[in-house]
Amino acid sequence: MQSLSVIQNELSFIWWIALGLSFMLYIVLDGSDLGAGIFSLFVRDEDERGAIMASMAGTWDANETWLVVAGGIMFGSFPMVYGSAFHYLMIPLMFTLLSIIIRAVALEFRVHSDSSKRFWDWGFGLGSLSATFFAGMALGAVLKGFPLSHGVLPNYEGGDLRFLSAFSLWTGVGAVVAASLAGGLYLRARFERRCPLYEQAGNWVAANFYLALAAVVVTLIWSLFAFPWAASKWTGPDAWIWLLLGAIIVFAAVKMRLASARQQDMTAMLWLSAVVVLMWGGMMATMYPWLVPGTWTLYDGANPSNSLVAFTLAVGGFIPVMLMYNWYQFWVFRARINKLAAYAH
Amino acid sequence: MLENSLSVLLSRLDFAWITSMHILYPPLTIGLSLLLFVAEWRWVGSGEEHWYRLTRFFEKLFIINFGAGVATGVTMEMAFGILYGPFSQAAGPFFGNILGYETITAFMYEAGFVGLMIFGWGKIGKRMHLFATFNVMLSSSLSAMWILVANSWMQTPTGVTLKNGIFMVDNWVKAILNPDFLLAFPHMWIAALELALFFVAGISAWYLLKQRHVALFQRALKYALFALVVVAPLQIYLGDGLGRVVARDQPAALAALEGHYHTYNPDGSVNSGWHIVAWPNDTAGRNDFAITLPHVLSLLETHTLNGKVTGLDHFKADDRPPVLIPFYAFRLMVAIGFFLFAVALWGAYLALKGRLGSQGAQLPRTFLRVTVFSAFLPYAAVWTGWWTREIARQPWVVYGLMRTSAGVSKMSVGAEVLWLIGFIIFEMIVWGGAWYFFAKVVRKGPDMDSPVIEGGHEHLGHLEPPHEGQEQPEYPRPAY
User: Fold this and answer.
1) Principal place where this protein is found (chain A) (predicted)?
2) Which chain B residues are within 8 Å of A340, Cβ to Cβ?
């Protein structure tokens, strides 16, 4: 029995990492698509808006699927958390889903439309904006934790609007700013350098860089005072590690800004990805062992070990495979385009 | 009582809505990807241009459908946790695992290759492209398989024990290969194939009616009809087998979908009557009105003249499913199955008489019209089949083990109504959009003029301009 619980704990930990990885990939990959969608709201030229959508034609679906994979991992390894957190987050998730729906079909339908192009453009832009906002809000709401009912299956116990707080509204705004920055960098990397859109995206990146910097600082300070679990880690005996991490993040952010200013667009995207990876990793480390702070540790929320073992054996090996073909896709669709690019199917 | 509280009913209605709207898309994705693979494979093998044109044309319809399927499918995944939190927790060790397998081995797999299949023309080689199409086919069927594993397990939950409110898996093989799955998956997969074949046949028939691209679509129609002569009766056979699994393992569900209230007649003999039409009255526990054929029910379910079929009176009142919807949904599904078989036979008869050859022989217009109409019927059959399955399982979410009322999240009525209204609006936009653009692409017709793309000669990442002859922007393209 002892060894079983060791396996249980180790596998829970591994799947927690896999869950974090999927969310992180979703944020890095689809963050760019969502941000490009937000940017498209400020683009006047219809062909340019179409080209923004065309630029992600072959990849948006795979990017978005990392969210579905994260959901699948959560249901498969942490059903207790899945069943209660999603219930708690019903309203923000509902708006996220509705936005994802309208955005996805706008991407597929627009190319076939003549008279309804504007409608799908708005669907794509506003869908991107509200999906980002509500997903960010859901993340903020999770950080605050939620009350559970007592009983064998502790489910969410509370009102429909509990997710709503100043902090969760703020994380929604923060997500929009962060995605906008990622979207700008993505468009810089995907469009030909002499397009007007390339210039516009450059200004957008510059503005959002400072906004994002401010948003991160505010979020950190807010978290420090609002969340004891965060404060105790950051100010504990290992404070120097967190300081070091912070310094590395600042370094990466500065490198990103410089690379972008020098038109090294791919490099800038990679530096931004590094920033996201480091910050996401930092957040997971801060939260450990909580999956939902104050509510579920990853060990309490996990499946019984026999299911975790089965899950690991059945699908563990697929994660590297998924990464491989995902990478191949980006390779195939990697070149720069101009505003006359369109879906070619 | 709790079971029929407004909140529980709304949760069921919300879920019924999103499932019904989602199930409109994946069957076509599954079936059509197989047909696309066959067509592209024939093209790569023979180099005949019409296979290429057919592949490219039906791919356009495929991607419209696929986008709608993904959009509504993401909702499905989240909806389990949102609307059925306690069920998700209790069934997590098995059901959650299976859905996790689905997202990792199928959903992501499919999303990866579908981009290459649709947008990879000219960017990747011919064989790599065929490989992408093959993977889309395989992954979409794999996805259906996992979903059916999960759903069938809710019908016939074997291999698990309920311990402390959680379904612990004792035997993975038994749980995955549960009795219902062994027939429900083939039944669903063949349904997808039949739907896609009628989709192709219906569109082809429409072109023949309009006398457009006759040579191309005569060929498509011929192949589809010959396939249907095998597929349509096979589906009826599988459905009969699944019916007997339901009779054996879910007697209350079977009794509901047959409107079979009484095991015995008042005189003590076995009630073997099969109702063609009935007006079920759940409160009184009988049919207020029925047209009944004697012996047919026993023949169908036990394959004997007077075999005993358990009636609803055998079950406690609160263990009985509602009858009206399963009863008529089931009959409609069966009727459609036989009707489609008849259409397939008619087509095969015409083909054998040489009226579907490539010599431009004329087909009766009635037949073409019926075939166009038949393209919509498989959708109705999928819907009614799914409703039969899900409603006849009530009041259980996991048959015999966990009641639906115990599985729903305790939500406010307001939130559930908000959810329902939001998803009605958005999914109607998706549905309307999908059919609008299907119609548009079909009206426009296949592209017969663009040069055939033989392989990966285009620059990687190149995207085509939207209109032929449109001028390029004035700035020069940078050299790579």
Assistant:
1) membrane
2) 465-466, 470, 472-473
Chain A CB within 8 Å of residue B475 CB: yes
In this complex, the residue of A65, A101, A304 whose CB is nearest that of residue B72 is A101
CB-based contact (8 Å) between B302 and chain A?
no
Give the domain range for residue B279. 264-309
Encoding tokens for residue A148? 């559970």
CB contact under 8 Å between B101 and A76, yes or no, is: yes
Please check whether residues B351 and B281 belong to one and the same domain.
no
Query: Per-residue confidence at B112, pLDDT binned at 50, 70, 90?
Result: confident
B476 prior amide bond cis, ω within 30: no
Residue A288 has, within 13 A of its CA and on its CB side, a CA count of 14
> Do residue A58 and residue B116 have CB atoms under 8 angstroms apart?
yes
* Structural domains of chain B, count: 2
Smallest CA–CA distance, residue B250 to chain A, in Å, is 27
The model's pLDDT over A233-290, given as tens digits with 9 standing for 90+, comes to: 888 888 899 999 999 999 999 999 999 989 888 899 899 999 999 999 999 988 888 8
Q: Over the stretch B130-140, which tens digit does the pLDDT of each residue have?
A: 999 999 999 99
Interface membership of B136 toward A (CB under 8 Å): no
User: pTM of the prediction?
Assistant: 0.88
Local structure of B163: helix, strand or coil: strand
Q: Is the ipTM of this complex over 0.95?
A: no
**3-state class (DSSP) for residue A297:** strand
Cα-to-chain-centroid distance, residue B314: 33
- B114 and B150 together in one domain: yes
List the single residue in B70, B165, B470 with the smallest CB-CB distance to A104: B70
